[in-house]
Amino acid sequence: MILIGAGLVIKSLWRLGRVEPGMEIERLLTFRVTPPRGTYPTTAELAPVIAHIEERLSAAPGVQSAGGISDLPMSGAVNSVTARRDDLPPPAPGEGLVVLIRAVTPTYLPTVGIAVRRGRNVEPTDRQADEMVMIVNTALAERLFPGEDPVGHRVTTLGVSRRIIGVVNAVRQFGPARPGEPGAYIPYAQTSGNEWLRRSVTFFLRTTGDPGGLAATVRQAVGAVDPTIPVNDVQAMATVLATNVAAPRFRSLAFGLFAALALTLAAVGIGGVMAFNLSQRSREIAIRLAIGAEPRMVLRLLLRQGARLTMLGAAVGLGASVWLSRLLAAFLFGVDPRDLGVFASVILLLAGVGMLATYLPARRATAIAPATVLRGE
Known about the structure:
With about 375 residues, the chain is of the alpha+beta class.
């Protein structure tokens, strides 16, 4: 039971680790700034400061590029709104599509490795006084524009009609275990009237080396623009991703340790039982050998008997494991609770351990000279 449970959660963790999060995690540093509201009360005053910080960061040693977004991906931040197509009748109340909306700077998408699949990226010319625009991800495009190219269409969010200028891949905003939610990106410079979208900015730096060594550089660059702006949560994006899989990793470690202990105890138990059993049958074995039975034939007989006991125990454990796997279903990702590969691998492992634990005492029993045993009797 424990071995199969361990096999399922370890395979689930392996599958989770192979999921593409939708952005390039390696060599990516992130931190958050929250400019004082009293100093920068509007987007018109705050946007140039954010752009200046970006410029300083991009020019810092060890930095390839820098970009900002309103919410840290995979942090659990929701900030969702409803969205509807302008060319279709408005949906009934409560039936609109819920969309995760993020405000981004022009360099955010290329910095984190989110490629624009169709259309164009946000540009510095997308300001509050210009046409209101947005970029949608593939999950939103599939929901609102099935079978259509959404670029050029208009969508209303937050009471504002925006023209779609691009389509990008969906990022797994709530961790690798959940698919990408429908989402949209709007230019940071077009967030007037939406305090919650512009007040806090999470910056990303694409570095040339280890991102962990740039914390001092980050604080220096921000302080050079405005020393009153605090810098928080400086960390590598790989750390954020690791936090999202911490619970599955702990389950895998716990199950793995218990499984290793259980397997060790099973091997010792089978070996001990067989050794005791064979010690009680030493006279029988000696007589078989004395009347002409070959040692290898006696060894094969003893291995068959040990194999029957091992398979009987495995069959009972297999039935219990089917019940256990149902309880684990909620903790598995991309793995069937009755995964045949895991079940078969565990059976083969137990068979191998059982045969080895049987073979060692059986080999010793058949190696003793029959005369020695009978003389002792």
